[in-house]
Design goal:
It is a single chain. With 397 residues, the chain is an alpha/beta fold. An eight-stranded mixed beta sheet has the order 5-4-3-2-1-6-8-7, with helices on both faces. A six-stranded mixed beta sheet has the order 11-10-9-12-14-13, with helices on both faces. The relative contact order is 0.11. The structure holds adenosine-5'-diphosphate.
Length: 397
């Protein structure tokens, strides 16, 4: 069974065609600058180099058409025709309280996703454009919606409520939702499998550290808390997002800089995080590491502040679960950044664990990095959101 996994952003579309029986990625690619001049489609069939072609894509339907043409191309394609696509899995950012698991898409589901648009105005409408474009071009192929928020729906009230008037939850559903759920779920399950343990008996803290970053507390296989909130702005310091701040900063900065609240929000989303903290060096941790190594003090401070925040969340979630068995690092920084993992690890000795420098000298592979005899196991587990979406799609088709 072949599953096409689609992750549709406002001007981009990422995809993978996966043979779900063998879990082989047959092809993957990215359409960029959809609806903007200078469109580009990058396509990579299994075992071959990436090919990039410049081509304007006025809308997402055109982009999906290009993707399907590339997959069926007689020379570089990987399938004969569209009949070899058995299902499509769509990443949908916000499922609100309506969706606590993946669902087969029909008109009612689309209407229910639209009702969550208010909660993710930048993401959900464009995710739905991807769904509609695929439905237009493949009307008979079953499609599944996999939500970033779904895994976190098991959080108890005490974890998802904010300390604000309860009526805002009742009237507007203002609460913690959490994101990166597909990754947290996949990585928590892999952690248990890798350690040969039953996830039902485990307390796991997953640190998803990418451009966006979040931590989750997973007890008995269920999410009990996570660091992102109503939106992905809360929690850790990220590439360009501030994470937790005193909300009064908004009005204070707005007054001092003569900005509107939405302009301040834009600063918090796009110009803050390690990019802002480093004085504009970069949001990319490789650049920050190089700058810090060559003596840039602000880059060094940004890295230290980042690691300190992650360590504080780990402490909070160890407390929330009254213990922890495993702490797992994943996503770009978590899988690859040896120095940042070591910095975070330096705060964890009170848990009876330590990052072992030799074991930590690893990138992008499943591995235990804590020292022999540690009470809490620290691991690296590469995330695979696309594979997880493909598996969930197969389960419903
Ligand atoms: P997202 O999917 O949220 O865009 P990623 O999970 O790809 O982000 O993470 C991007 C981050 O991972 C960047 O800051 C990048 O510097 C970091 N990263 C990726 N590869 C490496 C590496 N080999 N060494 C250090 N950092 C890396």
């Amino acid at each position: 069974m072949n599953v096409l996994v689609i992750n549709c952003g406002s001007s981009s579309l990422k995809y993978q065609l996966i043979n779900a029986d063998t879990e082989e990625v047959l092809a993957k690619g990215l359409c960029e600058r959809i609806g903007i001049d200078g469109g580009m489609h990058t396509y990579q069939p299994k075992g071959s180099d990436k090919v990039a072609s410049m081509i304007d894509m006025p809308d997402h339907t055109k982009a999906v058409g290009l993707v399907l043409d590339a997959l069926c191309d007689p020379v570089s394609g990987v399938i004969k025709d569209l009949s070899e696509i058995d299902a499509v899995g769509h990443r949908i950012v916000h499922g609100g309280e309506k969706f606590s698991q993946s669902v087969l898409i029909d008109d009612d589901v689309i209407a229910a996703i639209k009702e969550c648009n208010d909660l993710a105005p930048l993401h959900n409408p464009t995710n739905l454009i991807g769904v509609n474009s695929c439905r237009k071009l493949m009307p008979d192929v079953p499609m599944v919606a996999v939500f970033d928020t779904a895994f976190h729906q098991t959080m108890p009230e005490k974890a998802y409520l904010y300390g604000i008037p309860y009526e805002y939850y009742g009237k507007y559903k203002v609460r913690r939702y959490g994101f990166h759920g597909t990754s947290h779920e996949y990585v928590a399950n892999r952690t248990a499998e890798f350690l040969n343990r039953d996830i039902k008996d485990m307390k796991i803290i997953v640190c998803h550290l990418g451009n966006g970053a979040s931590v989750s507390a997973v007890s008995g296989g269920k999410c009990v808390d996570t660091s992102m909130g109503l939106t992905p702005l809360e929690g850790l310091i990220m590439g360009t997002r501030s994470g937790d701040i005193d909300p009064a900063i908004m009005e204070y900065i707005a007054g001092k800089e003569n900005l509107s609240i939405s302009e301040v929000l834009n600063v918090l989303n796009k110009k803050s995080g390690v990019l802002g903290l480093s004085g504009g060096v970069s949001s990319d941790f490789r650049d920050l590491g190089e700058a810090a190594a060559s003596g840039n003090e602000r880059a060094q401070t940004a890295l230290e502040t980042y690691a300190y925040r992650v360590a504080k969340y780990i402490g909070a979630y160890a407390a929330a679960m009254n213990g922890v068995d495993a702490i797992t690092f994943t996503a770009g920084v978590g899988e690859n950044n040896i120095a940042v993992r070591a910095m975070i690890g330096s705060y964890l000795n009170y848990l009876g664990t330590a990052v072992d420098p030799d074991r930590n000298n690893t990138r992008g592979e499943e591995k235990i990095i804590s020292a022999e005899g540690s009470k809490v196991t620290i691991l690296v587990i590469p995330t695979d959101e696309e594979m997880s979406i493909a598996r969930q799609t197969v389960a419903l088709c």
